[in-house]
Automatic annotation (TrEMBL):
SMART domains: PKS_ER. It comes from the Bacteria. This is Oxidoreductase, zinc-binding dehydrogenase family. PANTHER family: DEHYDROGENASE, PUTATIVE (AFU_ORTHOLOGUE AFUA_2G13270)-RELATED (PTHR45033:SF3), PTHR45033. GO terms for molecular function: oxidoreductase activity. The lineage of its organism: Bacteria, Pseudomonadati, Bacteroidota, Cytophagia, Cytophagales. Gene3D superfamilies: Medium-chain alcohol dehydrogenases, catalytic domain (3.90.180.10), NAD(P)-binding Rossmann-like Domain (3.40.50.720). SUPFAM superfamilies: GroES-like (SSF50129), NAD(P)-binding Rossmann-fold domains (SSF51735).
């Protein structure tokens, strides 16, 4: 297990702050991806906002699987060194003279999309996500354009709000835009331990769907029964899909999956006529086997989904506020223990989001 190393560095500031700009000489702690497999807490200069930007003092941040993929070199466009982290909640400490001063002092969350572009259906070629290659939220401060800021939903604590942005946005697009889930639909969410999955579960429940979940952990499934899952199955067991379809009383109208891999064909078998299988990740493997007639005879769909556009981000925050949705937090720990959260994610122990209090 990697040890946390606290290290002062004299190197140039990184990422967003490595421009020709006035550097605030104060330092901050930040989780830096130094090179492949090497993350460590470093003391780096506090970034200074440029035109249109704000400096946020982070209160809480959260991990996503992309942070762990980045750590192990399995994310496209990696840049070393970089400060990781796409999710955060904090207070606007200052904004550049050219930006909207009314943000100062407000408690905010940040839309992690960078340059989605003009077409709501797909992201532009210039698209990226806060926290790679731009410096992210696993730090005491982050700089971000003010048009990425949203007021923190009033019913959430800073830790709960920090859990929201990336995972809830991904789940929102997958459930509503791509899955087109409707009240009373039978919805299956796989790998419920995951951060995105737990939001997909909560959104579909709030919509009035019957929601069924899988996990590789019986303990997580027991907890989900207590949380309102309408049926559960362990994907490590043989023919788990038959048991789940029986519990549901029929095949699923919508399936939300990020597992892929060998289990994917069982999902295709469990899809209802005209049903939709939405896939946004491949944690268990990106190569799958499919019997195509299942799709053409059943008039069924497979749809890929990635993150969500800025309108979906706003709609997601509104939905969370309207339905008083509270993110499921697996654990909370201080910034100086952040590496252990990566290890927990790598081992798949979590049920919900891994939050870092800063
Ligand atoms: N396309 C996008 O925009 C987008 C956005 C976010 C995430 N993702 C991807 O989606 C995946 C999940 O992300 P996350 O941040 O939610 O990760 P996470 O919190 O680390 O969750 C990963 C979960 O995957 C589940 N899993 C592992 N093996 C599985 C299998 N064989 N079948 C089904 N589920 C399995 C586990 O659930 P159990 O513990 O319950 O077994 C685990 O909790 C990652 O691959 C990530 O890169 C994509």
């Amino acid at each position: 297990m990697p040890e946390i190393k606290h290290r002062k560095t004299n190197r140039q500031p990184i990422g967003l702050i490595s421009f020709n700009q006035k550097i605030n000489m104060a330092n901050m702690q930040a989780l830096v991806l130094v090179e492949n497999e090497k993350i460590e807490l470093q003391s780096v200069p506090v970034p200074e906002p440029k035109a249109g930007e704000a400096l946020i003092k982070i209160k809480a941040a959260a991990l996503n699987h992309r942070d762990q993929w980045s750590r192990i070199g399995m994310y496209p466009g990696l840049k070393y060194p970089s400060i990781l982290g796409s999710d955060g909640c904090g207070v606007v400490e200052k904004v550049h003279d050219d930006a909207d001063q009314t943000w100062v002092g407000k408690e905010v969350i940040m839309n992690p999309n960078v340059n989605w572009g003009d077409d709501p259906r797909f992201q532009s070629f210039n698209y990226s996500i806060l926290g790679m290659p731009t410096d992210g939220t696993l730090a005491e401060y982050v700089v971000i354009p003010t048009h990425r800021l949203h007021k923190k939903p009033a019913h959430l604590s800073a830790a709960q709000a920090a859990a929201l942005p990336l995972a809830a946005l991904t789940a929102y697009r997958a459930v509503f835009t791509k899955g087109e889930a409707k009240p009373k639909h039978r919805v299956l969410v796989t790998g419920i331990g995951g951060g995105v999955s737990q939001f997909a579960f909560q959104f579909a429940k709030a919509l009035g769907c019957k929601v069924f979940v899988t996990s590789g952990s019986d303990e997580k499934l027991e907890k989900m029964k207590a949380t309102g899952a309408d049926g559960t199955a362990n994907y490590k067991e043989d023919k788990w899909e038959k048991s789940l379809v029986k519990q549901a009383g029929g095949n699923f109208d919508v399936i939300i999956d990020s597992g892929g891999g060998k289990g994917f064909e069982a999902l295709a078998k469990s899809l209802n006529l005209a049903g939709t299988l939405v896939v946004y990740g491949g944690t268990a493997g990106t190569k799958v086997t499919l019997q195509l007639p299942r799709f053409w005879f059943a008039q069924a769909n497979i749809k890929g989904s990635t993150m969500g556009n800025d309108q979906e981000f706003e709609a997601m925050v509104q939905f969370v506020s309207d339905h008083k949705i509270i993110p499921m937090i697996s654990s909370t720990r201080p910034l100086n223990e952040v590496v252990s959260a990566f290890d927990e994610m790598h081992e798949g122990k979590q049920l919900g989001k891994l939050v870092i209090e800063v």
